[in-house]
Amino acid sequence: WVDHVAVVSSNGKLRARRPTAAAAAGAVLGEPVAASDDQGGLVHPSEEFAAQALVSSTQQYQEMYRRSIDDPAGFWSEIAETFYWKQKWNPDEVCAENLDVTKGPIKIEWFKGGKTNICYNAVDRNVEAGDGEKIAMYWEGNEIGQDGKLTYSQLLDKVCQLANYLKSVGVGKGDAVVIYLPMLMELPIAMLACARIGAVHSVVFAGFSADALAQRIIDCKPKVVITCNAVKRGKKLIPLKDIVDVSLADGAKNGVDVGICLTYENQSAMTKEDTKWTSGKDVWWQDVVPNFSTKCDVEWVDAEDPLFLLYTSGSTGKPKGVLHTTGGYMVYSATTFKHAFDYKPSDIYWCTADCGWITGHSYVTYGPLLNGATVLVYEGAPNYPDPGRCWDVVDKYGVTIFYTAPTLIRALMRDGTEYVTRYSRKSLRVLGSVGEPINPTAWRWFYDVIGDSRCPISDTWWQTETGGFMITPLPGAWPLKPGSATFPFFGVQPVIVDEKGNEMEEECSGYLCIKKSWPGAFRTLYGDKDRYETTYFKPFAGYYFSGDGCSRDKDGYHFLTGRVDDVINVSGHRIGTAEVESALVSHPKCAEAAVVGIDHEVKGQGIYAFVTLVDGVPYSDELRKSLVMTVRSQIGAFAAPDKIHWAPGLPKTRSGKIMRRILRKIAGRQLDELGDTSTLADPGVVDQLIALGDS
Ligand code: ATP
Ligand code: MG
């Protein structure tokens, strides 16, 4: 039981315990600012929900959590035993770790000596348990009326056929395969087929440019690239195969020759005849894969054998090739999925993330399937043909768990509630959010409007590097606070440290680190052990450093304040971007906000805020003053923005995160230093902002 985690006092309220002098060290980082713009306080799960929940009280959580910290080997072994292992791990090597660079190289190993296969556990095991006829995946296409589905037995057949094909062209254990596919069922099928034969998949989001894809191909040197000819997202046609061709040519110039480009014909987007083709290298999926047997032996791999390589989204610079291994990741992704969403076998689960991101790995493919869940895979854009599409889909399939990102919530909020209320949404029971801090106002809207004030929201904080949820509500176990990811998952020991690496207790604000390893932790950055140690383990010796800021309130709830690189220092006050943005978004006319620091003669740094307004609201000087006033009254005069910049759109990564790196340059008028803007979802936004800044 770690010191700072809340305990329940006699009145049932969560309280941090043991006030110590260390709490005062929080002052080193400046005054903690109000983390929430919400005056309503705690949001309790209904009695009905709590009664049916897997973990239904704080006390039950605390007992489980305490055990996971006191006896991690015992705790995780018991869970691991519920999976199939060809050979059990060495009982005295459940976890071997060194997280302290001063004591030698960083090492994290779980279930060493065990042999298993994640594809077998995610697919075969469900069929063998009698769930062969259960729907593993529903698929909803870009256009209304396009859909499909696969039972677990059918999924197994498809995975085996592709695995056999890959083996036939020489892909084996340890070989890399790059997957550049949109959200077709073939994407998770391809991931599972690689895992089945011990190949290492590297999914590249099919919205990335040829340059970004080439960079990844050159880094991991795949034997095969799997793609499709084209995809339609909304009204836009994206010729994926053409993009792959450019990347492969680029790879070849850099000495990486990929022999095969396996191409799925996505008929609804483009025909075979219209697809450019290089015979010898290019192979149509539909021509070869169905000819292979639907039986394929499993390659039993070591728990510590690599499962996949995934490049982070690059919000902060050059993407990092995050490497995950098999055993620990399997146990962790499955367990976090089950608890954070209070999963039940009757659930229909929809996560709007693309498999090109870690969320799509852990919570579209592996986590849900390892639990035998029914997953919805959606190909299109969430607001196509109109902003009501998500709720149309929810009603069509009877979705019970809906997991998405704040960026989508804010966009839908701006479009107005009438798109929501025209659908029933009565099947929903749990909501989830990931990717950025969720502003309390957006949280409220998600809760009140989408969930009709009856569905708990799991605001899950985690990273590509962590493999699974780290700080997350267990819906039903404790009351929520809008904007807070609440408490740590089993086995996770988050600590908030000051600049010198001292752990702080009680109410505080600082750098979020993790003490001790957890099974889902990444094992290295591919080909760059130095960067792995320097980025994550050197800043605070003995800890994994997340790169994020966090504050903890008097009740022990965790509030993520944004990336520490983005923290703004105004006259010695360290201000997280999330707080100021949340205050701005609480203004009824502000739909989205992004703040950055600019040089300021007196204060050191000043606050520069980009704001997007609710549809139809004109920007005016009066509105500017009212926005500034909102921040002053909610946080304090020291956090009042020095400049408000009206932004019809904000630069975002393809995963929907605001790119403050670029906004900082626009704010500081360093326009020749914008850096790489190719990973932006819409690079045109940048020119628009520059022009408005001049006006
Ligand atoms: P890069 O590391 O390449 O800059 P990235 O950090 O955006 O990219 P991800 O691993 O996809 O790539 O995102 C993890 C980050 O997203 C976290 O470190 C945090 O900043 C943010 N994040 C994710 N979930 C939450 C959440 N629930 N609340 C607040 N922030 C979140
Ligand atoms: Mg990151």
From TrEMBL:
It catalyses: (E)-4-coumarate + ATP + H(+) = (E)-4-coumaroyl-AMP + diphosphate; acetate + ATP + CoA = acetyl-CoA + AMP + diphosphate; (E)-4-coumarate + ATP + CoA = (E)-4-coumaroyl-CoA + AMP + diphosphate; (E)-4-coumaroyl-AMP + CoA = (E)-4-coumaroyl-CoA + AMP + H(+). GO terms for biological process: acetyl-CoA biosynthetic process from acetate; phenylpropanoid metabolic process. Residues 61-122 form the Acetyl-coenzyme A synthetase N-terminal domain. Coiled coil: none annotated. Its EC number is 6.2.1.1. It comes from the Eukaryota. Residues 130-517 form the AMP-dependent synthetase/ligase domain. Residues 579-657 form the AMP-binding enzyme C-terminal domain. NCBIfam families: Ac_CoA_lig_AcsA, PRK00174.1. This is Acetyl-coenzyme A synthetase.
